[in-house]
Amino acid sequence: MQVIDSILAQAASIAAVRRDIHAHPELCFEEQRTADLVAQKLTEWGIPVHRGLGTTGVVGIIKGGDSPRAIGLRADMDALPMQEFNTFEHASRHPGKMHACGHDGHVAMLLAAAQHLAQHRHFDGTVYVIFQPAEEGGGGAREMIADGLFEQFPMDVVYGMHNWPGMPVGTMAVSPGPVMASSNEFKITVRGKGGHAALPHTGIDPVLVACQMVQAFQTIITRNKKPVEAGVISVTMIHAGEATNVIPDSVELQGTVRTFTLELLDLIETRMEDIARNLCAAFNAECDFEFVRNYPPTINHPAEAELARQVMVQVVGAERALAQEPTMGAEDFSYMLQAKPGAYLFIANGDGTHREMGHGGGPCMLHNPSYDFNDELIPLGGSYWVQLVEAWFRQPTSVR
């Protein structure tokens, strides 16, 4: 692996920052302390800072010449609303809040890169280091863009990176096209007519309708979409009734829909509403249908993904530069890729063998109460960011 010596030399101090962030997790749009710490470090390294985009976002500006060309690198800062099981020294000090997705590590890797880029500036142009709030459900990327991110900091391309547990440390992955799915939620209320469970003929049973509806939704996946297209409908909540001998007046169903294309999402939403309303009508029931589109699919641009892969080969070797299998998880970096060319890539967090005494039981997986980012990734991820920047600027200006 090609790890930059200066980044390796500062890895311990950056890891200390990472653990401090892990110990003080902040939820979406509340990342004030984290933003203060990021801005403090950037300022110490002579990097001009802009704050406030997306409420708590931080943008560092690293100029290395007179060229108008510019690249953006993004890290997310927010934590999750969940209780941490770990008891090591840097475990969360805030009950019900935890860095269970490694965003503390994303910040650390980008800080490591920013420090080196500010000290050496072996590029002709501008690097914008973007520390984004509210990835976990708040759409912080969308809010930074709405506040003028790309107008105030005109960049040609933008890249993001996520740690990925389960793969061996020292491997990285990227692929062109869809790499993460759209995330969407639905809420359906089936309205019938309540009554005595012994006299079902006197009412309209919404439970029966809801059960039919859950099964019917799966026919959209098996019979309406093309078999080669990826889509998931998951009914994850069904709320009904208060007593065993009472047919309730209504049933509420909630869940998620995930796709890699907006065209398939359009189809699924339309068919779900058709099925819900017509099925209710067939049973003389009524229906309230709500469908909320959250994050769009994360779709890598081919040229930018290819450059990212080439740099991976340089940094970790061809055998460890993998193709990323698309996942049905969602990521709001998708908004940035809708606005600018770029790519979202992955760095392996290992199999959990980095865990220390005091680490909770169970697997070391994302969104797990025993999760912890692997500090071994800081010099590797920081070095990768630097080499990606330098490789991008070495390209002719006619190449994106």
Automatic annotation (TrEMBL):
Q: Does the keyword Hydrolase apply?
A: yes
Report the protein name in the record.
M20 family metallopeptidase
Q: Where is the Peptidase M20 dimerisation domain?
A: 185-280
What's the source species for this entry?
Answer: Curvibacter cyanobacteriorum
- List the lineage, top down: Bacteria, Pseudomonadati, Pseudomonadota, Betaproteobacteria, Burkholderiales
On the tree of life, the source organism's domain of life is Bacteria
Keyword Zinc set for record: no
Q: Which InterPro entries match?
A: Amidohydrolase, Bact_exopeptidase_dim_dom, Peptidase_M20, Peptidase_M20_dimer
Q: For this UniProt entry, which residues form the secretion signal? A: none
Where does the chain cross the membrane? none
Swiss-Prot/TrEMBL keywords: Hydrolase
